Task: structure prediction
Amino acid sequence: MCHERCRQKDEIRTSPRTRLPRPASQVFRRGPDPPSADHPTGVSETCLSLEKDGWRALLRTGPTARVFSRHGADLTRAMSDVAQSAEQVPEAVLDGELLAVTTDGRVSFGLLQSRAGKGPKPGSGFTVVFVAFDLLATGRDGRDLRSLPYLDRRRRLLDLLDGAPTGIQPTPASGTDAGALAWVGALGGAIEGVVAKPTNPYLPRYGSGWTKWRRRHTTEAVITGITAAANPNQQAAVLAKPDTTGQLRPVGVSLPLEPALRSHLASLLEPVGDQLAELPGTVGGLPGSPPVTYLPVVPQVVVEILTDQDHPEFGRYRHRPRIVRHGADLTPDLLAPAAP
Result:
């Protein structure tokens, strides 16, 4: 079962990185695995689909097409090309993800962020596609399908998007662990992992029982500061890696430090004065996040971190890394430069 495989993170984390032997345009046109006598929809009681590096979004298709973020913000202006494609699809509400795909078939989260509030720009070198993984409602009257089992919604989704514009496609799905894990690492690392979905009705937040697995990567970084927090349990480390010139550049903010690790690091870190500093919110989160306030420390402590990207993108890690341990045998000058 996938759930057993998902728990074996140490084993999967060290497996070779894989790529899909096909361009992005073909990946997103692929439906589920071929049907069988037991599973006519091509997926079993637990459906495995892709965990992608994009923005979760809702798409209303049809003549009044609109694009919304997972928090309800209207993204139609920024994603006007997606909305135009959605006008060619029968009326429905889709749950899915927005991805920025470059001309060479890679997916870039950083390029997707450049669309915020701006909209398509000629010559940008990428397009935005909507990859749908669920169908929530259909028809002009908005018939609610969330009470249906997932496989029924999946079948209706495939029928709805059969012949749809290339900018709106169903996500691939598989009924086997091997089929799903083969996708991980594809599209320049944009396929971050696998989501296992029981064939239940759609429920808000965590009610649907989805299990998410991401491939993790270990690397090293230097602590350059500790975030300001009223509660010590919320304190985190500002992490930096050397660039190609050897200068340390911030690449992210860690998850909150575990008590034992926080106590250990406290004896090693040396504050640089008592003045707080700030970093842009994008270093520790998404665009629009508040600035990161922190106390600078002497950059001399190296730690091993766990990330879901093998290198920073546009100078930072998208998700907050977790510090695994103190790299007592390392000094900052021994770290390899971060990939540009």
Observations:
- The chain has nine helices and 16 strands.
- Confidence is low (pLDDT under 50) at residues 1-51.
- The first helix runs from residue 2 to 7.
- The first strand starts at residue 46 and ends at 52.
